[in-house]
Amino acid sequence: MFGFFIAFYLTVFTQLLPQPACFHHMKNIFSTLLLLLLQGPIFSQKNQWWGASNYGGSIVAHTEDVENTRGAKPTGLFAFYQWQRLDSNQFKKFNGLPTQQVSFAWHQFGTPVLGKSASVQYHVLPEISFSRHAGIQFDIAGGLAWLSNPHHPIKNPNNNSYSTPIAAYLQVGVQPYVRLGNYVQLFAGAKFQHISNAGVELPNKGINWFTTHVGLQVSTAPYIHKQPFVKQYKNKVFTPYSYKTVTALAALRSNEVDATVKYGIAGVAFLYTKVFKPTHGYTLGSEILVDGSIQNPLLASVLAGHVFIWGKYLFSQQVGIYVHPQTAYDAWYHRWGIEYRVSKSWQVGISLKAHRQVANFPDIRVAYRW
Questions:
Q1: pLDDT of residue 261
Q2: Domain ranges in the chain with CATH number 2.40.160.20
């Protein structure tokens, strides 16, 4: 029943938006996945929801290169499956019991220069509960987006926001909710959404837009309140610890002189991490890069930051300062990374380096840990 509700919402709402031919297939695939999820087992210690929301907002023209998008009013739809596990392993991984979500979204950017987009993303939604029936969720998401109208020197020369049909999608948001009984939840909120190819191909100023949204989600089983489980699991004692890593990284990027040529980037990083809470640590370290896309390729920097530790997954945020004069970039940068521990001593991952609001390059990395 509820899978059909979401499929119906998706079908009706998207008839109001211009659609490429492939979107009909994507819509059918997503609806089918929802129905398959309904056939899955309902675990006694797990909340599950299916839902949808629609949004409206404004494009942020964050540089002069994208002034031609100022005033655009994007609209869109999210359809999602959401779950919240209540077991002790989940609490150990997140130091809490956050809701998780996978969603499909359709975006109409409100200007022919940017066109349209469809995206798939994974969300983590930690929350503050006021009671069994109300609270606020903080929505953090990442995924991939398909884009309809990339930069082209003849067909679309005015699009400086993106130049590839596939790009990364990122989102942060906040949404208060009210639960109506045990089966229905209403929510509304605000989001900042971003799409970029991380500088893999230029131009790539990215798409930034703020939105507000409203939505509804439903469940096939009565809601189980998480608070008794949280109180039970919080009694365990945590001992702070530290570790060190040496990381090798590699990347490719083009530059502003010739966007058709890809230049190699290689580097090594040394990092000290102090874990002071079960899911939080601070980091200090240094990094040396050889960046073949700039005239003076040797870059050395010092780094400081924070890392979320969720089981075997590590989500890092760092600020770096170059330790010698260079003219290619700003004096500082920020880096965002995701790594996975494949064993006690090794972890692999990806990261994105950026200067202010402009992505520099994404990299792949392998780290040894002790």
A1: 79
A2: 2-232, 241-369
